[in-house]
């Protein structure tokens, strides 16, 4: 089974070819990088309409060069969640391509793909997943044919909360890597008092959490003249401690002993370190996917698309409309029973 995946929910126009037999994946991506400010939906959609055909053509050419004219068995695409105008471009490209190649179409939930790539890479049987992405943040666990949302942000996505602060400071998008670099200048040797931890709102309510207050408080601290490196350090410590606390609670609640990380913020070393420490302390296994699979990418869409196609979970063109608010718990999980145990 070889699946061509297409991703373009917000900023990353991406196409990939996943060969399930060899478990190899080729990914071609073209990111939208705003000159200033955050992601502008109209500019992002314009980027998608230019870049999606290009990345698809590159991957299709590579696939046909390697496997010949029948290289593709199915086309998978991100149906949502994401920005409507971007999703529409991706949906149109996927439908056209599936029609032209005369292969089935697979509609993939982007958030479930963020989860499944970690399960695929790790080989874990039934992990809890922390999705720490730009526009989302939630904990998912599988039960009775669906991924259940065990906990989630009550307002902003985790990456968006960090980016809100970096926009205030005047740094270009994406802000997460810049916050990580600035925080690293302070160092993490808290025991010796090398860094002062600024007090910022820490909001965890049961399994849910909130980031809107912390972005505003970080902005206020910057306006009050606190050193930006110390704010970045404190922002990371607070936000990632919240995510680590709820991840631990989710493991405890479900009795699971495996945690996988997903989403672009998962590229952050400090977050990975905190989650790994927490898992080690409770004897749980932890897996953070390769960074190319953490940020938005079509590889995860093609990998899950191949599992869905193998389970016969394809979609008719007339039912393949995009869904900007597509929640992960709306997806019937058809592919797990078909997997070798
Ligand atoms: P979603 O997947 O929810 O639709 P998204 O489309 O914004 O979100 P992702 O690629 O998952 O995309 O995540 C992008 C986010 O990751 C941005 O907010 C960016 O600042 C953040 N990010 C990237 N690298 C790092 C890092 N090293 N540390 C912290 N955050 C990071």
UniProtKB/TrEMBL annotation:
Gene Ontology MF terms in the entry: ATP binding; iron ion binding; metalloendopeptidase activity; protein serine kinase activity; protein serine/threonine kinase activity; protein serine/threonine/tyrosine kinase activity; tRNA N(6)-L-threonylcarbamoyladenine synthase activity; zinc ion binding
Keywords tagged on the record: Acyltransferase, ATP-binding, Cytoplasm, Iron, Kinase, Metal-binding, Multifunctional enzyme, Nucleotide-binding, Serine/threonine-protein kinase, Transferase, tRNA processing
Q: Which intervals hold domain Gcp-like?
A: 28-302
| Enzyme Commission (EC) number | 2.3.1.234, 2.7.11.1
| Any one GO BP annotation for this protein | tRNA threonylcarbamoyladenosine modification
**UniProt binding sites for L-threonylcarbamoyladenylate:** 131-135, 163, 176, 180, 268
Q: Which domain of life is it from?
A: Archaea
How, per the record, is the cofactor bound? Binds 1 Fe(2+) ion per subunit.
Residues noted as binding Fe cation in the record, renumbered to the chain: 110, 114, 296
> How would you classify this enzyme at the top EC level?
transferase
Location of region: Kae1? 1-335
Its catalytic activity? L-seryl-[protein] + ATP = O-phospho-L-seryl-[protein] + ADP + H(+); L-threonyl-[protein] + ATP = O-phospho-L-threonyl-[protein] + ADP + H(+); L-threonylcarbamoyladenylate + adenosine(37) in tRNA = N(6)-L-threonylcarbamoyladenosine(37) in tRNA + AMP + H(+)
Cofactor(s) the protein requires to work: Fe(2+)
Q: GO terms for CC?
A: cytoplasm; EKC/KEOPS complex
Q: Where is it located?
A: Cytoplasm
Subunit composition?
A: Component of the KEOPS complex that consists of Kae1, Bud32, Cgi121 and Pcc1; the whole complex dimerizes.
State the family named in the UniProt similarity comment for this chain: In the N-terminal section; belongs to the KAE1 / TsaD family.
**UniProt function note:** Required for the formation of a threonylcarbamoyl group on adenosine at position 37 (t(6)A37) in tRNAs that read codons beginning with adenine. Is a component of the KEOPS complex that is probably involved in the transfer of the threonylcarbamoyl moiety of threonylcarbamoyl-AMP (TC-AMP) to the N6 group of A37. The Kae1 domain likely plays a direct catalytic role in this reaction. The Bud32 domain probably displays kinase activity that regulates Kae1 function.
What is the name listed in the Swiss-Prot or TrEMBL entry for this protein? Probable bifunctional tRNA threonylcarbamoyladenosine biosynthesis protein
In its UniProt entry, the species of origin is given as: Halorubrum halodurans
Q: Which section of the whole protein is represented? A: 1 to 341 of 608
């Amino acid at each position: 089974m070889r699946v061509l995946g297409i991703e373009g929910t917000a900023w990353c126009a991406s196409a990939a070819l996943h060969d399930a037999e060899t478990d190899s994946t080729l990914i071609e991506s073209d990111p939208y990088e705003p000159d200033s400010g955050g992601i502008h939906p109209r500019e992002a959609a314009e980027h998608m309409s230019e870049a999606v055909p290009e990345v698809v053509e590159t991957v299709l050419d590579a696939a046909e060069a390697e496997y010949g004219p029948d290289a593709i068995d199915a086309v998978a695409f991100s149906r949502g969640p994401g920005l409507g105008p971007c999703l529409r471009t991706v949906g149109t490209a996927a439908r056209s391509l599936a029609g032209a190649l005369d292969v089935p179409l697979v509609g993939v939930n982007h958030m479930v793909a963020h989860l499944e790539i970690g399960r695929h890479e790790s080989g874990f049987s039934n992990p809890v997943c922390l999705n720490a992405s730009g526009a989302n943040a939630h904990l998912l666990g599988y039960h009775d044919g669906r991924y259940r949302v065990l906990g989630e942000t009550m307002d902003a996505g985790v990456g968006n909360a960090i980016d809100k602060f970096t926009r205030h400071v005047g740094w270009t998008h994406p802000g997460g890597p810049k916050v990580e670099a600035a925080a690293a200048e302070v160092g993490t040797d808290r025991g010796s008092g090398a860094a002062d931890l600024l007090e910022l709102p820490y909001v965890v309510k049961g399994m849910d959490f909130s980031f809107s207050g912390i972005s505003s408080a970080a902005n206020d601290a910057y306006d009050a003249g606190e050193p930006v490196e110390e704010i970045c350090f404190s922002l990371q410590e607070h936000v990632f401690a919240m995510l680590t606390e709820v991840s631990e609670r989710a493991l405890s609640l479900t009795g699971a002993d495996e945690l996988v990380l997903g989403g672009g913020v998962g590229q952050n070393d400090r977050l990975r370190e905190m989650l790994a420490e927490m898992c080690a302390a409770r004897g749980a296994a932890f897996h953070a996917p390769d960074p190319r699979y953490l940020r938005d990418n079509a590889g995860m869409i093609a990998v899950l698309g191949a599992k869905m196609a193998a389970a016969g979970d394809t979609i008719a063109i007339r039912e393949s409309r995009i869904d900007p608010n597509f929640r992960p718990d709306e997806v019937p999980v058809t592919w797990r029973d078909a997997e070798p145990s």
